Queue: 2 jobs
Job 1
Amino acid sequence: MEKDQILQTLKKILKEQFLIEEDKVTLESSYNADLNLDSLSVVDFLMEVQDQFDVKIPDAELNDVFTVGSTIDKIQELQSVN
């Protein structure tokens, strides 16, 4: 899946779950610092991402996914393996 398609889906999830306006979400956006999500919200978001994209981010790699861009990279990596 293309990076732009994934980004649009992530923006939609963030808007629906956390009322974050899509124009505030960029590749560099940090879930904690920029989007003001606490750790539980980030976990909820990543669970929804895994469901939407039919991927499983290993627990050991969850700390590597802290920005929108790193989430997209991880999704693309996991989709290429399947």
Job 2
Amino acid sequence: MRSFFIWAGLYPLTGTKIPRQLAGFFWERCYKIFFMDNKQNTGVQDDIRVDVNDPSEVEYVHRQYPGYTHQEIIDAIKKFGPMRSDIEAHLKK
């Protein structure tokens, strides 16, 4: 993790530790830069997983299986996990 902070220019090169108040700020900044879900940047991870907290993804599954309500789809995601193949196998029954 330290090498990541050095690469990102967020860790002091002197080897001293980041003060606790700044560590949370730096982690939040790195999270927003590298890990936030960009709807324009879709890839394999977006194809194989369904995020139960994202209404647009639940709506997409609902459009594929209109015989189920949104709540039934959310329950299936919570029960069978985020993998799209597991969810679809259950919904096809």
